[in-house]
Write a sequence for this structure.
């Protein structure tokens, strides 16, 4: 049986960090896509233990990490303590209020699939005005590149076979979590993600599929949609 997500549980956070830690080269690819500079203001939704923030913080004027998990944020605060311009905030995505903050770069990895499609739309609509025109948002997450979520059952056998090949030797350890995510969480189709970004004032300019169920979307905030 998979471990049911309980981000207030130190054991679950440790389980996640042990099995799903991101290799440095993958974060480097994300940094390259976001092309951050010293004038930029970054927000990381689902910052977890601060792995990405630790790499990005020295490149930007300010960096905000948002996450629900107390144990993860405790690690993030410890490792980023004393770094100027870094803020760590405990909040759900739907409760997050940007207030007067304005961002030029946004990032989220393996986090927004926890929201239903209607919640994704509400979240993006709420944060959209906080992004300046020309701002970039990089989403890396579970998403379906060849079909919509409503077609999950019809694609199930091929999907599971591809996941087994994708994860290789780590498949048996990750299998319960991955199958739970496919069925019980909310990875959605790329075309629907594009429509959600579009309604929030962003245009998806780049799509990179690492598999049929995982990849990245890079979106740019359009002119005339600032708050």
């Amino acid at each position: 049986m998979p471990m049911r997500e309980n981000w207030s549980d130190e054991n679950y956070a440790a389980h996640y960090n042990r099995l799903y830690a991101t290799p440095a080269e993958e974060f480097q690819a994300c940094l390259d896509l976001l092309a951050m500079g010293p004038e930029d203001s970054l927000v990381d939704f689902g910052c977890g233990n601060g792995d990405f923030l630790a790499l990005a913080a020295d490149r930007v004027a300010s960096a905000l990490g948002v996450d629900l998990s107390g144990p993860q944020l405790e690690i993030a605060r410890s490792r980023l303590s004393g770094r100027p311009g870094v803020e760590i905030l405990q909040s759900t995505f739907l409760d997050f209020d940007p207030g007067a903050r304005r961002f030029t770069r946004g990032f989220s990895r393996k986090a927004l699939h926890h929201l239903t499609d209607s919640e994704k739309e509400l979240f993006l609509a709420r944060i959209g005005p906080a992004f300046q025109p020309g701002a970039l948002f990089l989403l890396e997450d579970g998403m379906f590149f060849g079909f919509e979520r409503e077609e999950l059952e019809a694609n199930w056998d091929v999907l599971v076979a591809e996941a087994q090949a994708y994860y290789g030797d780590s498949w048996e350890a990750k299998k319960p979590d991955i199958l739970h995510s496919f069925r019980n969480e909310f990875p959605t189709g790329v075309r629907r993600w594009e429509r959600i970004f579009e309604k929030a004032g962003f245009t998806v300019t780049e799509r990179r599929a690492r598999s049929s169920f995982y990849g990245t979307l890079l979106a740019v905030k359009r002119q005339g949609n600032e708050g």
DSSP finds eight helices and eight strands in the chain.
